[in-house]
């Protein structure tokens, strides 16, 4: 339902402004994870399966979108001195909403993500977009920016989650890929595997950029 | 979900089981066995950002530990009040406000006492607010149902663990300054790989706090 709403908003904004730079930049050039290296904690912590990674990515994208909209529309009313505190309050509100919504949708998923849903509050990506973009730009642009960054973040999480689940469990989205006799690399699901996978993805991006 | 998958999901399943721990066990668990950086991936941003120099890393560790202890003690009080007035949905917002104010206090203190340190820590000092490790401590201790003294010890352990991880990686990175590495590996990718190996080492502590 939410996706539908995002899409119409996106298309409307697309028609208004010929430049879609704000959206595209989050996907590749300024990818929040691979290029800006922001919001690492959830990226590493809940990317042990593709499913968790996708859920986390979408939850973060939702909070990012809503907080960008609100910050952007209130940008002329929030005094400069207390802006960071106000942004955090706005973000915390939407995270609480998301937390309760996920709990209502799937208790199992809520359990798997654990405290990391609440920890979206302290995801540097969201605060940095609020401070660096939404507080200086119009609502339309902020929506595009949030969508681009959100999709880029989800994409990066999926990249990690898919690799880790494939090597650590022989499956993607719980669908077995490798035959039964595949020896699972347990380390990929453990914390160390998160560090290694992200390091290798960053390396791939570094080689690509040159 | 396979069994080994659930085991590493420390945030959800394991926490609910552990109830009767001695204070010493809580300390060892928080600092070594479930190290906040290397096992829970909390506080990765300062971990990557200020781990270049040993000196800065130690002081950053100190500042984070201090904020953690204050936040943890406050979180204990806030939780008691919120339970009394039956408003659990305010938990996240009130925790983050307390953390933000504590960080502001530490920032003013450091600026007054040691301007050099203030410059060295740079943007990462105000960013302690968005250090997931601190909010993580507050949330985890609430989930575990710790009392006042237990919360204090837990926060102390988490802070010590964070400092250990930060100092270890800073030492390694100082040595790596003189090593010849390929250009594409330089920077974050290399740091993450070292972190992965450190995380593997810390897995050796499993079972220590039982």
Annotate the secondary structure layout.
The complex is a heterodimer of chains A (210) and B (210).
Chain A: H1 2-16, H2 21-27, H3 40-45, H4 50-73, H5 83-105, H6 107-113, H7 124-134, H8 139-169, E1 171-172, E2 175-176, H9 186-189, H10 191-209
Antiparallel strand pairs in A: 1-2
Chain B: H1 3-7, H2 10-17, H3 23-33, H4 44-49, H5 54-85, H6 91-113, H7 115-121, H8 132-144, H9 148-176, H10 188-202
Count the E strands of chain B: 0
Strand order of the largest sheet of chain A: 1-2
- The 3D shape of chain A can be described as globular
How many β strands of chain A by DSSP?
2
Structural class of chain A: mainly alpha
**What are the segments of chain B in which pLDDT stays under 50 over at least 5 consecutive residues?**
1-18
Order of helices and strands of chain A: HHHHHHHHEEHH
Oligomer: heterodimer
Please state the average pLDDT score of chain B: 81
Q: How does the major sheet of chain A shape up?
A: 2 strands, antiparallel
Helix fraction of chain A?
over 70%
Report on this structure.
The complex is a heterodimer of chains A (210) and B (210). With 210 residues, chain A is mainly alpha-helical. In chain A, 70% of the residues lie in helices and 2% in strands. Chain A has a two-stranded antiparallel sheet. The longest helix of chain A has 31 residues, at 139-169. The N and C termini of chain A lie far apart (40 Å). The model of chain A is unreliable at 1-7 (pLDDT under 50). Chain B has 210 residues and is mainly alpha-helical. Helix content of chain B is 71%, strand content 0%. Chain B is globular and about 60 Å long. The two termini of chain B are 26 Å apart. Classes of the chains: A mainly alpha (210), B mainly alpha (210). The interface between A and B is large, with 50 and 51 residues.
């Amino acid at each position: 339902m939410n996706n539908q709403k995002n899409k119409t908003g996106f298309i409307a904004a697309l028609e208004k402004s010929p430049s879609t730079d704000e959206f595209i930049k989050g996907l590749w050039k300024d990818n929040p994870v691979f290029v800006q290296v922001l919001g690492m904690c959830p990226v590493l912590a809940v990317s042990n399966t593709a499913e968790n990674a996708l859920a986390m990515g979408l939850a973060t994208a939702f909070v990012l979108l809503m907080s960008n909209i609100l910050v952007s529309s209130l940008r002329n009313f929030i005094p400069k001195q207390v802006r960071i505190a106000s942004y955090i309050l706005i973000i915390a509100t939407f995270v609480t909403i998301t937390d309760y919504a996920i709990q209502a949708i799937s208790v199992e998923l809520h359990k798997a993500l654990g405290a990391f849903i609440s920890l979206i509050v302290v995801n540097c990506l969201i605060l940095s977009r609020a401070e660096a973009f939404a507080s200086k730009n119009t609502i339309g642009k902020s929506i595009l920016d949030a969508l681009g960054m959100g999709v880029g973040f989800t994409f990066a999480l999926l990249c990690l989650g898919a690799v880790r689940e494939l090597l650590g469990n022989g499956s993607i989205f719980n669908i077995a890929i490798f035959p039964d006799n595949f020896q699972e690399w347990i380390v990929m699901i453990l914390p160390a595997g998160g560090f290694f996978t992200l390091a290798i993805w960053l390396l791939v991006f570094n080689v690509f950029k040159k | 979900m396979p069994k080994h998958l659930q085991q590493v999901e420390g945030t959800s399943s394991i926490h609910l089981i552990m109830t009767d721990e001695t204070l010493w066990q809580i300390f060892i668990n928080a600092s070594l066995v479930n190290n906040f950086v290397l096992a829970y991936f909390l506080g990765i941003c300062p971990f990557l950002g200020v781990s270049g120099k040993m000196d800065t890393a130690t002081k950053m560790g100190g500042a984070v530990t201090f904020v953690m202890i204050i936040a943890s003690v406050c979180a204990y009080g806030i939780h008691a009040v919120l339970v009394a007035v039956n408003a659990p949905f305010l938990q996240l917002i009130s925790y983050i406000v307390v953390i933000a104010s504590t960080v502001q206090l530490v920032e003013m203190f450091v600026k007054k006492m040691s301007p050099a340190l203030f410059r060295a820590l740079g943007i990462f000092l105000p960013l302690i607010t968005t250090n997931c490790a601190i909010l993580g401590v507050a949330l985890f201790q609430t989930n575990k149902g710790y009392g006042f003294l237990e919360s204090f010890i837990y926060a102390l352990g988490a802070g010590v663990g964070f400092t250990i991880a930060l100092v270890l990686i800073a030492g390694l990175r100082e040595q790596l300054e003189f090593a010849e590495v390929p250009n594409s590996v330089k920077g974050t990718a290399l740091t993450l790989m070292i972190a992965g190996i450190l995380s593997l080492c810390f897995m050796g502590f499993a079972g220590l706090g039982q």
